Amino acid sequence: VRTSILRTGGEVGDLVGLWRSAGESVALVPTMGNLHDGHLSLARLAATQADRVLMTIFVNRTQFAPGEDFGAYPRTLDADLAAADAAGVVDAMFAPDEREIYPYGTDDAVTIGMPSLASELCGAARPGHFNGVGSVIVRLLNITTPHLLVLGRKDYQQLILVERLLADLRYKVRVVRGEIRREADGLAMSSRNRYLSEAERARAPALQASLRQVSDALTDGQRNYAALAARAVAALKDAGLRPDYVEIRRAGDLGQPGPATQAAELIVLGAAWLGRARLIDNVPVQPEGG
Ligand code: AMP
């Protein structure tokens, strides 16, 4: 498959219209570009579930809080196109200008107000972030009209909130969840990993390692959530990271678990700063005695 590049919503509408009238199913894989194997794994997953794969690259200004890295975010369109082309599963790449997505600009745009989960976990430190995510997702869905929406588990809170958004607004699109792709030492792949110096990169696997320790303790039957999270925060500090949070939540809806919640229903999530990179990760919990 050779990847064609589309710049306008009109071009996307024409191409998806052709696909749909031929009876083909369409999967959307939205990204902010600087493609790595995590993104490409979503495209490969999409290709197993749909006839056509449409990837988007758009660095969405409205999901960056004031003072965040919108300006510095890596923009590598030529390399991304080459990577998508080489993957051989991306039929088209939509790389729009901001005016295609926000025709009235970003300052006075219609926005999506996400439910209260949006101000917890990553949302506590990133005010407005998930409203920006919701706003761009509905815009991309309305332009591309896919049957499937493929999202990574890496951004687990985003995944849960987008699923909630789609259910609440009655979108007729099915979400497909992609597994987290990791480097050999366990660090979750991320476009922001390129912000890390060599010394920081060597410390970065501590995030997954400390979340995994919490996850293992939960599988072993421990339920002292606050103490487990505090121990992980301390381990992150010892490793030279600046932890934002470590929390144990219900995997289904990211609500607070109770003392009797089954291990298999739990997930451990964390975020930590390392240099100028804010790293996030999450680890599901294996069932007790499993
Ligand atoms: P981003 O470009 O960071 O906005 O991510 C675009 C999509 O790729 C989102 O659905 C992410 O969850 C997903 N993604 C990012 N990193 C990974 C990874 N390491 N493994 C799997 N999916 C990922």
- What are the segments in which pLDDT stays under 50 over at least 5 consecutive residues? none
Q: What's the total number of strands?
A: 9
Placed side by side, the strands forming the largest sheet appear as 1-4-3-2-5-6
Order of helices and strands: EHEHEHEHHHEHEHHHEEE
Summarize the helices and strands and which ones pair or pack.
Elements: E1 4-6, H1 9-21, E2 26-31, H2 37-49, E3 52-57, H3 77-87, E4 92-94, H4 98-101, H5 122-125, H6 129-144, E5 148-152, H7 156-168, E6 174-178, H8 198-203, H9 206-219, H10 225-238, E7 242-250, E8 266-274, E9 277-284
Parallel strand pairs: 1-4, 2-3, 2-5, 3-4, 5-6
Antiparallel strand pairs: 7-8, 8-9
Helix pairs in contact: 6-7, 9-10
The structure holds adenosine monophosphate.
Give a quick summary of the entry.
The protein is of the alpha/beta class and 290 residues long. It has helices at residues 9-21, 37-49, 77-87, 98-101, 122-125, 129-144, 156-168, 198-203, 206-219, 225-238; strands at residues 4-6, 26-31, 52-57, 92-94, 148-152, 174-178, 242-250, 266-274, 277-284. It has a 6-stranded parallel sheet with strand order 1-4-3-2-5-6, with helices on both faces. A 3-stranded antiparallel sheet has the order 7-8-9.
